[in-house]
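Hi R.,

Here's the chain you asked about this morning:
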Amino acid sequence: QVHLAESGGGLVQAGGSLRLSCALSDRTFSMKRRAWFRQAPGKERELVTSINLSGRTYYTDSVKGRFTISIDNAKRTVDLQMNSLKPEDTAIYYCAADPAVIGDYDYWGQGTQVTVSS
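And the predicted structure, written out as tokens:
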């Protein structure tokens, strides 16, 4: 069964921190790629960060040094620690997973809202 469920979104002031968590079913937890995307109002969805089974990570330039993706094997979650948040980080954040090493992500969570006030 494929299951992804995000939690941890909310409202925070600029400069603050939030931690998002994505609970994964056994099948999705073992997929080769896990990622966080976001979609701001009026903008296209963008890849924020990803991590593969070997632990290799990718970060989009705008979040480098501020966001950290990690895997919690005990809890079977993919977490996103977001520090030094900016108003432009405001978006719906989605967790995604895919069994392939490249290509589009096929499995998605329902999303969680992150709002950063100035």
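The mean pLDDT is 95.

Let me know if you need anything else.
M.
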